[in-house]
Amino acid sequence: MGVKGDSNHDRAEALRAKCWAACRKEKGEVLDQFVEVTGYHRKYAISLIRKGKIAKKTGQARRGRAPVHGLTVLRALQVAAEATGWICGNRLASFLTVAADGLP
Known about the structure:
By secondary structure, this protein is mostly helical. The chain has helices spanning 5-21, 24-38, 42-51, 71-83, 89-101. Helices cover 65% and strands 0% of the residues.
């Protein structure tokens, strides 16, 4: 059946109270009807009825290590990498130490 996703989530919300009050057999029947109407996988339908609509995470904090260097350092490294023809990081690091030794 062609039913919009939001209305399916509304249906699941409406069924939540009914399922909590129902016995095991009735829960199975309600779930079977919900799966038949929505076309969802049975396990997804169970989680939808139990937990509700899963919200997408927006604005979540970045995972991993915090940046060590600022934007000015990164731009300077980009200039140096372009000047050397984008050589690999190990060679670029040794080049920068040699170039820094030659500065007054």
